[in-house]
UniProtKB/TrEMBL annotation:
Cofactor field: [2Fe-2S] cluster
Keywords, sorted A to Z: 2Fe-2S, Iron, Iron-sulfur, Metal-binding
Pfam families: Fer2
Gene Ontology terms: biological process: P450-containing electron transport chain
Organism: Paracoccus aestuariivivens
One Gene Ontology term, aspect cellular component: cytosol
GO molecular function, one term: electron transfer activity
Xref: Gene3D superfamilies: 3.10.20.30
Record protein name field: 2Fe-2S iron-sulfur cluster binding domain-containing protein
Family listed: Belongs to the adrenodoxin/putidaredoxin family.
Domain annotation 2Fe-2S ferredoxin-type: ranges: 1-105
Domain of life: Bacteria
Length: 106
C-alpha cells in the first residue's frame, strides 16, 4: 500500500508499505527523514508525531488510549490531526494515505 509523506518544506515522498506495519515503521524502512520513532512504537517517545491529511483522518481511526498524553510531549505544535505514526497500522483501505511531517521531532 502507498503512503505519502509530506515534509515540512513541502517535499513529497511516496513509499510502499506493508499491510499490518505501522506508518512509523514504514517511514523508517524507507529512510523517510522526519520520523524518528525512538521508542520503537511503544508510545513512549512522541518522536513519530505526524499530521494526518484531513481527507484521511476518519479512515486512519481515533487516537489510542494514552496517545493523547504522549502527544502532549511532542516537539512540534499539536493539531487536531496529530497522531503518533506508530499507532496507525496500514491496511488495504489506507492505501494512498497522506501524512504531513512536523518541523521537529526532538
Ligand atoms: Fe515512540 Fe511512536 S515510536 S511513540
Amino acid at each position: 500500500v502507498k503512503v505519502t509523506f509530506i515534509h515540512s518544506d513541502g517535499r513529497e515522498e511516496t513509499v510502499d508499505g506493508r499491510v499490518g506495519d505501522s506508518v512509523m515503521a514504514t517511514a523508517l524502512a524507507n529512510d523517510v527523514e522526519g520520523i524518528v520513532g525512538e521508542c520503537g512504537g511503544s508510545m513512549m517517545c512522541a518522536t513519530c508525531h505526524c499530521y494526518v491529511d484531513d481527507g484521511w483522518s476518519e479512515r486512519s481511526g481515533d487516537r489510542m488510549d494514552g496517545e493523547e498524553d504522549m502527544l502532549d510531549c511532542a516537539a512540534s505544535e499539536l493539531r487536531p490531526t496529530s497522531r503518533l505514526s506508530c499507532q496507525i497500522k496500514l491496511s488495504e483501505g489506507l492505501s494512498g494515505l497522506v501524512v504531513y511531517l512536523p518541523e521537529a521531532q526532538l
